[in-house]
Each structure stands twice: as structure tokens, then as C-alpha cells.
Design brief:
It is built from 6 helices and no strands. By secondary structure, it is mostly helical.
Length: 149
């Protein structure tokens, strides 16, 4: 086998490895994003069930900032682990264990709605509709019906 043939074969092998690595990387990024994206909808629904609409924006912003606060606390935990002489791997084990304990707590203790917890539901204020607004709405509805949709 000549040097040129060996170079072609090694380049082909490197391309195959890089392609396989790229596909695996893409799959892992997809799974990562998919599983992380499953967190927002249930939290948003739960906050909407428990919090009055006038306070919802404030509470939602506090909930969103909790991710940054958690990252800051994880940095503190990792710094403490390094100071105590643990290796870098413990910076993954300890936060994962804390997250697992938090998930178990939420699974058994957090209720979906106030009714499940035995408290009163959040009452949403009804907006009073003036007769003029009602007439405009009826007129718009009639126009939509006349035009067929």
C-alpha cells in the first residue's frame, strides 16, 4: 500500500468517525433540548392555577430568576467541595443528588391546583362589558356570519 492510499484511507476513516460523532452530537443536543423544554409548560400551568392574574407576572419573573440563582448556588457548592478536597466529579454528583431530592419532594408534595390542597381556587375577575361594547361585538359577529367566516 502506498503512502497516498494510506492517506486516503485514514482521511476516509476520520471522516466516518467525525460524521458519526456529529450525528451522535446532534441526537444528544435534540434529547437535551427536548427534555429541558418539558419543564416550562407544567410550571407555567401550575403558577397560573395558584396565583392571581394581577400577581402572575411578578411571580413568573421570580420563578424565571430562580434558574440563575440555582446556577449561582451550584457554583458555591462546587467551590465548597473543592475547598474540602473532593474531586471535580463531585461537582456533578452533589448537584444531581440535590436535584433528585427536589424532584422527589415535588412529586409527592406539590399539588396541581388549590382545590387538591383544600384551599380556595383563585378567582378571576370578570370584566364588565358595557352595552356599547356588547353591541359592537354583536355587530362584528353578524358581519362575520354574513361574510361566511
Amino acid at each position: 500500500m502506498t503512502a497516498h492510499e494510506e492517506g486516503v484511507i485514514s482521511t476516509y476513516a476520520l471522516g466516518m468517525v467525525m460524521t458519526a460523532h456529529g450525528v451522535l452530537y446532534g441526537i444528544s443536543r435534540f434529547v437535551n433540548g427536548w427534555t429541558q423544554g418539558m419543564g416550562f409548560p407544567p410550571c407555567a400551568k401550575m403558577l397560573a392555577h395558584w396565583i392571581h392574574p394581577k400577581e402572575l407576572a411578578t411571580k413568573m419573573s421570580i420563578w424565571n430568576s430562580s434558574h440563575s440563582i440555582g446556577a449561582f448556588l451550584a457554583l458555591g457548592v462546587c467551590s465548597l467541595l473543592f475547598a474540602l478536597g473532593f474531586g471535580w466529579r463531585w461537582c456533578f454528583y452533589v448537584p444531581a443528588a440535590l436535584a433528585g431530592l427536589g424532584a422527589v419532594f415535588c412529586f409527592f408534595c406539590v399539588k396541581d391546583s388549590p382545590a387538591e390542597a383544600g384551599v380556595h381556587e383563585v378567582e378571576y375577575p370578570r370584566k364588565a362589558v358595557s352595552p356599547r361594547d356588547a353591541a359592537y361585538r354583536k355587530r362584528d359577529y353578524d358581519i362575520l356570519c354574513l361574510h361566511g367566516g
